[in-house]
Specification:
- The chain is an all-alpha fold.
- The protein has 11 helices and no strands.
- The two termini are 49 Å apart.
Length: 283
């Protein structure tokens, strides 16, 4: 009787040690969730080093203004009303092109991913556009649309459309065939299949594409606002370059960075809410 009890104790301790070892090993493989705000640690370190280099005289103000100088300049521009109109113009261009590109990219991805006719007509054209840099289209689009707002919005639209289409289309094609068979067994209609299986299955890929699209819309805008514009952050930076005002150039860079980070944070928040059911690495 004593031997049996001893065996059970030894076995229980062995199982416990094995469980703890497996648990310890698994926790090493999975990184902990990043606390809110810690994602800005890298940019904060860069700003601190940049500011220190400027104060120590390693960076000349004529080469690159210090962050503190740029912030003071941006604050003065905000107070005298010279910044907000240009900021509003840039935001209108970026988000107009982003909205049109996301909507069109999702529609094309659904048509191509869920129908053979759509794939035959759409996928090849999108792949060709993917191989052609958006900025290479500037001369042709200027001939078509002139050098006004329509040209800038159209080029942002084409830059955004490609990643939205590619990632959403790949997510649709990557849906588990078992879910398709289950939907057929349950007798779901085509519309019900798209609503309950295809769209939820494509959401992770769509949000990846949306984050890329947000970054691309601002990247394209930086270049496009250097082409015959009288408003926008890019126009301010271009004019400041002519006068050697590096503090205003840095103000523009900081604004682009903040708008990009803010837009990405909004997309991350929406993604977290929409995919709250999913358990994944870092969730």
């Amino acid at each position: 009787m004593t031997d049996i009890s001893t065996d059970r104790i030894v076995k229980g301790q062995t199982d416990r040690h094995l469980y703890l070892a497996v648990r310890k090993r698994s926790t090493r493989l999975v990184p902990a969730k990043l606390p809110p705000g810690l994602r800005l640690l890298g940019p904060a370190i860069v700003l601190i080093v940049w500011e220190a280099a400027s104060r120590l005289g390693l960076l000349s103000p004529s080469t690159l203004a210090a962050p503190s100088t740029a912030i003071a300049t941006g604050y003065d521009m905000l107070l005298d009303g010279s910044l907000l109109p240009h900021l509003a113009a840039s935001a209108a261009r970026a988000y107009s092109g982003l909205f049109l590109g996301v909507i069109t990219g999702v529609i094309l991805a659904l048509l191509s991913g869920l129908t053979r006719t759509g794939e035959a007509l759409i996928d090849g054209l999108v792949q060709i556009k993917r191989a052609v840099p958006t900025l290479a289209l500037i001369p042709l689009v200027i001939i078509w649309l002139g050098i006004g707002e329509a040209m800038k919005v159209f080029l942002i639209f084409t830059a955004v459309l490609i990643p939205v289409y590619i990632n959403t289309h790949a997510a649709l094609r990557g849906i588990d065939i078992g879910l398709v068979e289950l939907a057929r067994t349950l007798g779901l209609t085509r519309a019900e299949f798209i609503r309950h299986v295809a769209l939820p299955g494509a959401l992770p890929g769509f949000f990846v594409s949306l984050r890329l699209a947000v970054a691309l819309c601002w990247t394209a805008l930086v270049v496009l606002e250097l082409v015959n514009t009288q408003t926008g952050i890019g126009y301010l930076m271009n004019r400041a370059r002519d006068w050697g005002q590096t503090d205003i150039i840095v103000v523009g860079i900081i604004i682009y960075a903040l708008l990009g980070l803010l837009s990405d944070a909004v997309v991350r928040f929406i993604e977290t809410r929409a995919l709250s059911y999913r358990r994944a690495l870092g969730s």
